């Protein structure tokens, strides 16, 4: 009996659903297209001190080099080999990043592109980030090596055209990308070797790109071949954290739940619906968020990886549509990210982007392909300005005070129950997390003025949205909580950030 209990405890703590963050840290950040040398520095100078749990990095394996358009971000989703060799850096730089980040308690999660290789229409040659040969027409990738019989063309060599047909979605080509035959043990072994190489270096887990386009059983067969995490940083027997990119907004053949056995899934309803609510589209109101999470038809919290926007839907790729909020809509975006980080649902990922010149024609951004800030294809350094924001067109949303402080809020309230919900039947809402934190939003077109039960101990707290607690003082608003746990809040509808958040560590 005791043994069974112990086993199930181990299963819970060390399994593929656990991100293995240190000190109970609760959020990760996607440093989209960053170089490994910049991520290593960011772990040490910012992410560790601010309480971030980890980083999702762009695919580290060799990819095709596309010249028309010039070096798009999406070339990294067209693998040529499993050498660690991209515009983000080489294997030495990758190893150095993983070591330095782990040493300060920040984990690295790799975006693993294992469903396919490059697009079928690309010419043969050596246009790849490490110079490896490719011949898409013959389906030859000698640097792996893969050849014609390692692909699914015998099942389907056309495009996915019908998302109501699971067979097509998993055997045909996604956007013309050559679809690997993951039912073959040879292919599974090559993929697992790549992932094990990364695990041995010290990564904590993987985002499985295009998981919806792979059979859950094939993914499981690959995962079963994976090593435990490196015991230099992780406890014995730890399994890699797995989150699978499965877009399930409802109404298609494939359901996110089919993938729960393998790990977590990306919950795309989260950002699409939260964007609709904060934009007040379709008659949505923040008061409806009272039962946010499973109550809105989302997957169970302990199976969800959640985010407001991702690298696809912030530029019109993937799914979610026009309701998705991004840094371009900064005021609403900060509220959405603040809500996500305050709410107990799901494991949270913050997006960190670069700026590009958008060019909308008939509602579509013609520049949705533009790659990271660069000089002739060489990715620019992430420079840090005197005010701690980033230069060189790196947006660094994760460094925005409101977002960075809400990551800290989430850590402080970790494990505390959702509590003390209040709303005005419209777009003024508030809720707390046990007796550790409280947040109030005003997304109405009129002022908020209310005395609310915060659940917090009496005292003076610094609002972490308008400022910080510095040397025993608040640089922004103060909130006084009485001995009955109540506090008065006033939020103008024209405030720069119409929300207030206080927590145990922001108390004076
Ligand atoms: C590039 C070129 C292509 C070219 C290809 C090969 O753009 O023109 O044919 O190379 O030469 C990224 C880019 C692609 C790029 C690719 C490779 O986004 O443009 O192709 O790299 O360089 C589907 C997948 C999902 C995928 C998403 C983009 O299911 O896995 O498309 N995301 C990942 C990555 C992404 C990457 C890849 C996969 C490939 O995050 O960056 O692509 O490695 C429906 C389906 C979704 C489907 C979308 C879009 O969604 O449900 O599964 O996502 O369609 O096809 C409403 C619906 C919603 C629907 C949505 C859009 O919201 O409710 O269900 O509308 O119709």
Salient structural properties:
alpha/beta, four-stranded antiparallel sheet, binds acarbose derived hexasaccharide, globular, 508 residues, 27 strands, 21% helix
Small-molecule binders here are: acarbose derived hexasaccharide
Helix coverage percent? 10-25%
Low-confidence stretches: 1-11
CATH homologous superfamily assignment of the largest domain: Glycosidases
Profile the largest sheet.
8 strands, parallel, barrel
Average of per-residue pLDDT values: 96
User: If you compute it from the alpha carbons, what radius of gyration comes out, rounded to the nearest whole angstrom?
Assistant: 23 Å
Quick overview of this protein structure:
The protein is α/β, with parallel strands linked by helices and 508 residues long.
């Amino acid at each position: 009996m005791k043994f069974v209990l112990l086993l199930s405890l181990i299963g819970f703590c060390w399994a593929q659903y656990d991100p293995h963050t240190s000190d109970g840290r609760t959020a990760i950040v996607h440093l989209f297209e960053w170089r490994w040398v910049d991520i290593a520095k960011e772990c040490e100078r910012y992410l560790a001190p601010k309480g971030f749990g980890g980083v999702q990095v762009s695919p580290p394996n060799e990819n095709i080099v596309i010249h028309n358009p010039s070096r798009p971000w999406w070339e990294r989703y067209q693998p040529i080999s499993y050498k660690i060799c991209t515009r983000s850096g080489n294997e030495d730089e990758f190893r150095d990043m993983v070591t330095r980040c782990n040493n300060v308690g920040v984990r690295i999660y790799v975006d693993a592109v294992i469903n396919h290789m490059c697009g079928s229409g690309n010419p043969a040659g050596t246009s790849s980030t490490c110079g490896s040969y490719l011949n898409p027409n013959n389906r030859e990738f000698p640097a792996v090596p893969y050849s014609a019989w390692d692909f699914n063309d015998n099942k389907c060599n056309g495009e996915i055209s019908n998302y109501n047909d699971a067979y097509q979605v998993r055997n045909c080509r996604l956007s013309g990308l050559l679809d690997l035959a993951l039912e073959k043990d040879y292919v599974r072994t090559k993929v697992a070797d790549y992932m094990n190489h990364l695990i041995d270096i010290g990564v904590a887990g993987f985002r499985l790109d295009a998981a919806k386009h792979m059979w859950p059983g094939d993914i499981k067969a690959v995962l079963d071949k994976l090593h435990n995490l490196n015991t230099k940083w992780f406890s014995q027997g730890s399994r890699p954290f797995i989150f699978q990119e499965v877009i399930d907004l409802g109404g298609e053949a494939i359901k996110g739940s089919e993938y729960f056995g393998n790990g977590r899934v990306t919950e795309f309803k989260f950002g699409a619906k939260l964007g609709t609510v904060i934009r007040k589209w379709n008659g949505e109101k923040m008061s409806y968020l009272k039962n946010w999470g499973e109550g809105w038809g989302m997957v169970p919290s302990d199976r969800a990886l959640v985010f407001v926007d991702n690298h696809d839907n912030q530029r019109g790729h993937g799914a979610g549509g026009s309701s998705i909020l991004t840094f371009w809509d900064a005021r609403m975006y900060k509220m959405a990210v603040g809500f996500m980080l305050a709410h107990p649902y799901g494991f949270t990922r913050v997006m960190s982007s670069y700026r590009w010149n958008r060019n909308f024609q008939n509602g579509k951004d013609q520049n949705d392909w533009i790659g990271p800030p660069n000089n002739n294809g060489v990715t620019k350094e992430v420079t840090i300005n005197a005010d701690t924001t980033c230069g060189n067109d790196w947006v660094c949303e994760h460094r925005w005070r409101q977002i960075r402080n809400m990551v800290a809020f989430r850590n402080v309230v970790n494990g505390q129950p959702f509590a003390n919900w209040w709303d005005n039947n419209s777009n003024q809402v508030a809720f707390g997390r046990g007796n550790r934190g409280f947040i109030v939003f005003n997304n109405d077109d009129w002022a908020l003025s209310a005395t609310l039960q915060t659940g917090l101990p009496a005292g003076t707290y610094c609002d972490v949205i308008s400022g910080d607690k510095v040397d025993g003082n608040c640089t922004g608003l103060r909130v006084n909580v009485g001995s009955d746990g109540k506090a008065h809040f006033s939020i103008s509808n024209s405030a720069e950030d119409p929300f207030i958040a206080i927590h145990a560590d922001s108390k004076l």
